[in-house]
Every structure is written in C-alpha cells, then in structure tokens.
Amino acid sequence: MTVLASSLDPKSPEHAANREAMLTKLAELDAEHAKALAGGGEKYVARHRARGKLLARERIELLLDPDTPFLELSPLAAWGSDYTVGASLVTGIGVVEGVECLITANDPTVRGGASNPWSLRKALRANDIALANRLPVVNLVESGGADLPSQKEIFIPGGAIFRDLTRLSAAGIPTVAVVFGNSTAGGAYVPGMSDHVIMVKERAKVFLGGPPLVKMATGEESDDESLGGAEMHARVSGLADYFAVDEPDALRQARRVVARLNHRKAYGDPGPAAPPKCDEDELLGIVPGDLRTPFDPREVIARIVDASDFDEFKPMYGTSLVTGWAALHGYPVGVLANAQGVLFSEESQKAAQFIQLANQRDIPLLFLHNTTGYMVGSQYEQGGIIKHGAMMINAVGNSRVPHLSVLVGASYGAGHYGMCGRAYDPRFLFAWPSAKSAVMGPQQLAGVLSIVARQSAAAKGQPYDEEGDAALRAMVEQQIESESLPMFLSGRLYDDGVIDPRDTRTVLGMCLSAIHTAPYEGARGGFGVFRM
C-alpha cells in the first residue's frame, strides 16, 4: 500500500486559523444557499401551500428513493444579479427506482416559475450534464413560461431547451415531464417533446395560447380546462400519457415510469471502497486564508481518496504539480493537483504525459486547482514556457476521458485552462469557499494597469498623477477581488456549485457514479501537434 503519510498538525495555530477562516466562509455560503431555499419568500410560499401544492424541493424528495442523496447543481445561479438566487429553478442528480436521473423542478413561488436568463443557462447546463452522462431527465414542470420583461435575452437562445429534449430522446436518453401547473406558450413544448408525460387533474394547464390570447387571435371563447387541462389532454388530444389525481399520485406514477425504462449503466457497480485513513474534517484547516501561502495538496488527496492510497507519478520532477493514481469510491482516477501555485515547463510536460497515460488506460482525471498560472520572465520564455504550457493545454483539450475539476485555492490565468477550467468542458466543476479565479491576481492586474498608465504618461511627457494612481489601483483591486470570489463565479454558472470541503469525497463519488452511466474511451491519438 502506498498510503500518504500526513504531516498535518490539527492542533497547530496555523490549522486553527485556516479552519476558522473556512468556517466563516461556509457560514456566508449557508446564508446565500438559504436565499435559494426561501424561493419567492414567505408570502408566495404561503400562497402556494394554500393552493394545496408542494414546493419544488418537496416534489423532488417524494420522487427520489427514500434516504438517498440529491446532488443539487448550480444552487447559487443568478447570485449578484437582479434575479432571485437559484434562478427559479432547482436542478440536480438523484436516484429514482435505482436509476440515477437528472432532475429539474421549476420553483413557482418565484414569479410563477417563469424563466429568466439565468434559469435558462441553468437548464441548459443541466441538459449538457444529462447528455454527456446519459442520465434520464425528469422535468417537474410548473412555469409561467418566459419572464416577459427579459424576453429579449431568452427568446432566441431559449429554443435550445426544446432542441436538447429532442436530442436526448434521439440519443436514447429518456425524458419525462410531470406537469403540476402551468406549462404554457413555449413551455408547452416541454411536455410536447418529452418521451413520457404525466399531468395532474385540475392543476396542469398546457396550451400554446391561453383563453385571452385565443380570444384576441381567433375570437373564440374558451376556458383553461377545455383548452389545455389534464383530463382533456388525457382523453382528447393524447398529449398526456398518464393522468394523476394529485401531486403525490403524479410523483408515484413518475417513479413507475422510471422503473420501467430499462435504463442501464454502461459500467457495473465498483463495489465497496475503504474510506480515507485521514480525517475528512481536517480539510477545513488545510487551505490558508491568504492563498499566497503555499500548502501541500497531498494533504487534500489523503482525505478524499480511498484508503488515502496514492501512487505518485514523477514525484521528483516538476514538483509544483502533483500527479498520481488513486481510487475514489471504488472508481479509478488520475489526480493532478497544484502544489506551489506556479506551473513551469517541467510541470507542463509532466501533465501532458500523465494525461496521455490516463487516456491510454481509460481512467478519468481529477484536477485540484491551486495555481497562479504559468511562469513568466525572460528565463522561462527562453526555456519554452509558451510551447510547454500549450502542450499541457493541448493534452487537456483533446483528452477524451471524463474530467472532474475542483477549485480548492487559486485558479488564475492560463493555469485555469491547463487545469481544465469551465471552457474545457469538465463533466463537473465545483469550488471550495476558499477558491478564487480570474485572469490574474487583483494586485498583479492593478499593478499592470498602473505600469501601462505610467509608461503612457512618460511617453507623452506628462507628469504622472500618483494620487490618482493609488485610487485607481485600490478600485481595480477591489473590483477584481470581488469578481474572483466563488459566489460571484457560481452565480454566473462558471461552476456547478460551491461545496463544503468535507463533502468533497461524497460529491465526487456521486459524480463518478453518474459518469459511469455512459460509455467512454480515452484518446489513443488525436492530440494536436505538440511543439517540442
């Protein structure tokens, strides 16, 4: 056994300070998550309940197998925008009748569940996850359609929702729509394009145009029930495959539909796995509050992989990047973890070789980010840092095994790309509350702008405003700092969620299980030209 030997002292002042800083960030995160859970607020929640309806997460809970977890995705979507945190939509992965499914649920307490630009992005991200991992999709529908004041931002790209449903079905990935209330106008195509449709008696309303629009367009007098009620669609139009008497009955029928899908995972159960030998609770005290202070990523690895067992690859070469083989909840993984932050030529070449090896062996890759980017300076430029960094990015970009990314600390510059940031399509990407990501650090970016402005003034023969420079630097640093924080980035769906470090192993295990629903094969060639 190659068990990692931890040198972490949980009783040290440094660990205590790091832990306290992390707990403070987690408390802030919990407060923001509470906003998503609150939906439209007490008034609209009470009104929804008075109508005898379940809340979005209550519907999900009844749909899932008892005592099984739900991995909620993008819970902070729309954070920092004019829209409600969570973006009036709940998405995530859960187990229904033993089948891992991608589940979405409109939150009708938020503007009637209407779709805004952030809920659209959140829904499209959920569809991407379902397609990549061959997860059946269950849509729990109750939405007033597009949030009309923002229609200019959602009408054109919003058609992708319906396109995705047809592509999922064409790929043999089942889609199920359970309609609890309104699903009107463009929203009518969600059940219209789903493989299986369940509607709730006297609640579901599915029509392209409601009675007022029909009156305006044709002069016809109509009512909700005859125009688009559940019973009409079950008896007359045939749009409803199943007729439910109430919400619990609809969710029971949805479970039976999933039970009859005959949807099988591409890979079998990996079996039981030994937990880490190191205490996962200690993850709270590993990352310093100041990310400029280095830490050993092996301490993180030792607390998330099976039995803390890790076979390190090239341990004496390119030492600011740790690479090696492990298992996580029984699934094999190759791990790339930044050590001292900066990536040099040696680390880049080591990473490219390691990624190729993982593709040869069909082993998924896990990237643990804490990098300030690739090294700069004349010595390193002359040594080929551009071509070596490009080699690493080439390998990541053309790798065909599934990738998982966790932003643990810093993730700046092209290092974010080389470590498989969002633009490189990792199957899943999560962040710790300690993470930061931007084109460069706030101080560096402000300093660069200052130097450029100073040089410009000198070239024009003008005196330089030192007081104005100090104010500019302070403003830029504050802006970049705020825009590099995990809640800001998560609000824009640049990750799939900000997680408690102690949940990392569980979250990654659920993701790996979902990944193994779909077959995959590593690249045996097909990489771009490596500049040697």
Automatic annotation (TrEMBL):
Family annotation (Gene3D superfamilies): 2-enoyl-CoA Hydratase, Chain A, domain 1 (3.90.226.10)
UniProt keyword Metal-binding present: no
Parts forming coiled coils: none
Pfam families xref list: Carboxyl_trans
Transferase in keyword set: yes
Domain CoA carboxyltransferase N-terminal stretches: 22-273
Boundaries of every CoA carboxyltransferase C-terminal domain copy: 279-517
UniProt keyword terms in alphabetical order: Transferase
PROSITE patterns tied to this protein: COA_CT_CTER, COA_CT_NTER
Domain of life from the UniProt record: Bacteria
Molecular functions per Gene Ontology: ligase activity; transferase activity
InterPro entries associated with the record: AcCoA_carboxyl_beta, ClpP/crotonase-like_dom_sf, COA_CT_C, COA_CT_N, MCCB/AccD1-like
Family annotation (PANTHER family): ACETYL, PROPIONYL, PYRUVATE, AND GLUTACONYL CARBOXYLASE-RELATED (PTHR22855), METHYLCROTONOYL-COA CARBOXYLASE (PTHR22855:SF46)
Protein name: Acetyl-CoA carboxylase carboxyltransferase subunit
Organism whose genome encodes this protein: Streptomyces caeruleatus
